[in-house]
Structures are given as C-alpha cells and as structure tokens.
Amino acid sequence: MNANEQGLRQIGTRPPRPDGVDKVTGRARYGADYTLPGMVWGRVLRSPHAHARILGIDASAALALPGVLAVVTAEDFLAEPKGDVASGEAEIESGDLSRNVMAREKALYHGHAVAAVAATTPRIAAAALAAIRVDYEPLPAVLDLDAAMAPDAPLLHADMFTRGVDPEPRAASNVAAITTFQRGDLDAGFAAAEVVVEGTWCSPMAHQGYIEPQACLACVGPGGEVEVWCSTQGPFMVRASVALLLGLDVADVRVIPTEIGGGFGGKTTVYLEPLAVALSRKCGRPVKMQLSREEVFRATGPASATRAWVKIGARADGTITAMDARLEYDAGAFRGSPFIPGAMSIFACYDVPNQRAVALDVVTNKPKVAAYRAPGAPQAILASECALNELAARLGIDPIELRLLNAAREGSRTIYGAAFEAIGLVECLEQARRHPHYAAALQANQGRGVAAGFWFNAGLQSSAAVHLTENGKLLLEEGSPDIGGSRAAMALIAAETLGMPYASVKPAVVDTSGIGYTDLTGGSRTTYATGYAVIEACRDLIAKLCARAALEWGVDAARVGWRDGAACHPDAPGTTLDIVALTRLAARTGGPLSGYGSVNLKQVAPAFAVDIADVEVDPETGASRVVRFTAIQDAGRAIHPDFVEGQMQGGAAQGIGWALNEEYRFDARGVLENPGFLDYRMPVASDLPMIDTVIVEVPHPGHPLGVRGVGEAPICAPMAAVTSALNQAAGTSIRVLHLTPSRVLAAIGARG
To answer: Is 0.85 topped by the overall pTM?
Structure first.
C-alpha cells in the first residue's frame, strides 16, 4: 500500500532537497573549506614499510626549522585508553584505535602514521616531515589470508590470541577471532540432499569511493576546550574518540560536522582529528589537516578482502535441506573486520532448517578495514547467491522460483536466532519474476544473473529537537550527518507528523553541543532511528500545542485533539487553532514552543533486495559490460522516493564496480600500487546502463511510518548477480573477483 492510500500527504512526495541550492552553487562548505585566524597546517609522516619495528624517532631537526610549531608521536596519545570506542560499523578496540591513529611499537602497514607536524605553511610542514628521522627494523610483511594463517606466519601482534575457540589457545595468532552461527543438523540436512553444490569465492579489498578526502580543523582553547570541524559520518564518534585517545572529558570536546562529500562507511572512524587536536594543544594555534587522494587510499580503511566457501544441498524439487559456509575476512592491521555481520547475513534470505556459518577475523599488513555499505554482507552474499544460481542450473529450476520456494517470510528464524516480523523478500522476488527485464531476450554473448540481498538496518540511539519560530515555521535540529538526503526525509517526517507544509520546515544538522547523543549515520539507521526521534519530538510539541490551546479555551488538555496542523476544540466542532495562531499566542500561554525526542531502538528493521543483471562479454578480449540492470528493494516506506531510488542506483553502481573494476593491488612489499582514481578504476557513468528501480513497500511494524532504511541492501546482491551473468555469458565458472578482461579471457581459453 502506498503512502497516498494510507492517507499520508507529505510522505512519498518528491520535494526539492533543502541543501540542493548550496551544493549546486558551490556555497556548501565541506571539511577542507573551513579556516580560522592564526591557523597553521598539519601533515602526517607515514611509514615506508608494511611491517617494521619502530626503534626510535628523532624530531629535533624538524623542530629546529623556522615555522615548525609542534611535532606529535605516539607518546602524545594514551597507549591503553580506558573505555569503549564509538567506532561505528567496523569494530576496533581502544588500544588498537590509538595505534592505528599513530603507530607505537610497530608500523603495521605501508602509510601507517608515525608522526605529525604543525607548521605555518604546507611547504614548511612537508620539509619538517623530511627532517624527521625514524629508525626502523623492517619485518616480513603478511599480505594475504593464506600467509597470515600459515603455521610459521610472522605475527603482527604478539599478544593476540584467537577469541571464540575452546579451549583458549596458548599461542598467539594472526587469526583474531572465530565465530560460529548454527541451527539444525548439518549432517542430516546434507544426507537428505539429492544435489549438492559447493565452491569458494574470493572478493578483493575495495575503496568506498567517496569523492571528498578526509579533512578537519581543530582548535584547543586556553582553558582546554576543544572544537573540531570535520567531514564525518559520526560527530559523536569523533568526540568520543578524541576524548578517549587524549584523556579529555567528552564535555570539553565540541564537534561540528561539515557537509560531507561521501562516506559509505569510510568516515565512521577517526584518522586526522586526534592528530589535529594534539597538535593544536601543543602549539596553541588552530590546526588544519586534510588527506591527499593518495593518503586516502594508503592510510584509511577499505572494505575487507574475503574468501568464502559455501556448500548447499537440496532435494530434486528445489527444497534446500542444508547450507554451510566458512568465511575468512581480511581485517588489515588490527582486529575488527565485519566477519560477524557477514556470517549473520549470508543465509538470511532463506528459511532452511539446517544452516551453519563459521567466520574468521584475520589480520594482515594492510590498512585497518572500515565499513563499506552493509559491511561484510556483499562478500558473503556473493558466495551464497552464486552457489544458489549454480544449484538452480543443476536442478533445472528457474533461479527466482528456487528462491521463492525457500524464501524467508514472516516468522522465519535466522541463523542467529531472531525471527522475522513482516518482511518483503517474497514481494521483491515476485516483482522480479514478472518484471519485463526478466522475460527479455538475451543477445549473443550475453548472460543474465539474479541475486537477493539482506541487511539488518539497526536502530540505535538518536535525538532530535523542533522549535517553532515567531511566525509558525519549524526549525528542526538533528545529530545525523546528511549523506543521502536525510535532511529532506526528516523535514517530510516532521511535516507529516505536525500537519504543516514541507516548505515550512527548516532542517539542520547541528554540532555535538546542540543536540542529544546520536549514533553515527550508517547501517541504514538514520531515516529509521533519527526519523523516529523526529516523530517523538513532533509529538512532544503537539502535546504542548494542545495544552496551549486548552489554556486558551479553558478546557482539559487531554480532551484537545490534533488534526491537519491544528488543535481541535473538544466541544465546538470546527473550532481550531493552527500552528501559526498558537505561535502568536505563545507569549501569553507559556513562552517558546519546542519539542524533544530521543530514542534507543533495539529492534532491527530488516531490508531485502533483489537484482537482475545482464552482462555482455567479448569472447576475443574478455572485456565485459553490464547492458541492463534492475534493482528491486523493500523500503518499508519510501519517505522521499527520489532518494530511495538514488540509494538503490548508487548501491548497484558500487556493487557492479566491485565485481568488474575495483581492487586494491599490493606489491610484494605491501605497497599499494593503485592509490588514486586513475589507477583504481571505479566505474563512471559511461560504464553503466540506466539502472532501473522498483520500490516495494512492506511497512516495518516497529516504526510509526513503517520505515526500514534503504542504504545498505542495494550493494548486497549486485556482485553475485553480475558474476553469475558474466559466467553464463562466457560459459565459465570464475569465482575470483574482480572480473578483469585477462581473467575472463583466461577462463574462456581454459574452457576449450
């Protein structure tokens, strides 16, 4: 049922975004656009080794240079800070965060920060970096999963023992943790199977593809108060991390989020902000820092490289009897890959009684990974969905029919124990089955792949506030940085709840001192959780407006209703006081009118997507291209359909790029060979077809408007759909991404 059928007036419309004019005219201010009087420049010295012991750092020559004001090293940060790390979607422990921000005992990847300087000009800062002397003892680099897990592998962390195994290990390991999810009887499930498929699929480290490099400006005042302007998905995360690493009180740290030029999970942790604050504290001047494009690639967190083995058994009629998986995630230099959500999501689309997923978190001498849209899920789902397509081919069953036969529904229990409430996977599959794309004829050298995807959509903590101006307009304040149109969505939610025009709502993302605690923008939680907080704030305001109307009418406030933006007299039908009238009465009825809302949503809002991809392969060169793509997704409720479609198209584009174009390539020394967009080949518009979208709406029962969130699920299925389509087109069974022309051509040649 669409929004209009539900009697909604604002939800489901497509008004202009409130930040649109500033962005298209260049007035929007991003992280690198901020300056302060007396500002100086910060730069980072980075390790030339992928693995090396740091024996000593001599910064005396750098400090002697005119214009150099400060140098910081690991000694300026707490080695073992006490407290939790609000690190976002990719986990990291506090001590590891400290060592990732600044190398201490060892440099653990090429580009690892070992010192930072503040100087009056960027040129002097660069000269200071060259003057710092670091004494390294190079160590063997561990660069892939096999090398990391070898019995004689060099250890990255001598004190790291594998978690999640019984008995507890006595020897240190590069395997940080192992987790297992299981339900049912695997042996019985496979014994009942008449057809079994299995295989191993590998996906590479990949960049999130945000255009704006990380940047920040920090100022420490004479009383120790800290202000940070930065491009981030989580200002409260930045506040907590800065305070944690530098031993500050969070109340003394104010973080002002700037406009953000993309993040996709890559800006859910800190890199520069603690360095800038430490430098500012030392030199007494505001310090500005920004990464070059090369630094972004070498020293911030990509998505995990992953190896996934999957085994699926089924009866001849297509009933799946068992699903098994082993997932190995490359965490980079520190523990905390998204191995757990990968294991939880790999089979979430299917109601199969016997399932198991074992996942490993493995460290290597590469940058510590960060989140990337639905972190961990696309790599896992690549394997499970490709295996399902192979199973469908073996059984001679249509791949969508196979999925419908085994699809998760309301009441289906997941591998991690939760039971689904109302979900829209079946509806998405049915939309795919009857879509014209699925029935369209394929041309020569073309193949078609389908895949389903899943993400949890966590709620977590959010706050919002609303204030009426003297003329009845609404100022809306929230703490979630806008990376996908959330200001427009929040304004629509407020307008719908209050019954006022969208144009009368003025949304703003405010700093950490201006709103209650809010978890970061990520995991498709913003419209779900912050939108819920906006509803609560508006309901709080409505209660106060009704109380003001009751005071004016001399009636009991509990008897005053609210309809279409006005308080309704309980005894005089047709007598109302609208928002403008109540605002004019505010001074004599109690003063300014504001509402506040805070939520801590424990319930997830599961989202499902289904993709159809057509791929064409040139058999003479191995070159491939996606010629048609349809993305179908259950949004729960499409608050602003333009943004929902944009999220779906963006996720599809990123998944296509991950399959066909993108890969971090390291040489034998652990040096990244393609640290920039000229060599790291993200797809551009000319590489892609028009991506068709179908929005499905199965309202989430745990949200007043049925919202689920839409940012994560769109990237979960494209890799599998594209890989399956390419293999069908080429008559190959390639299971290692990315699908380079040389790799495809070699597979065609091996086919004979």
So the answer is: yes
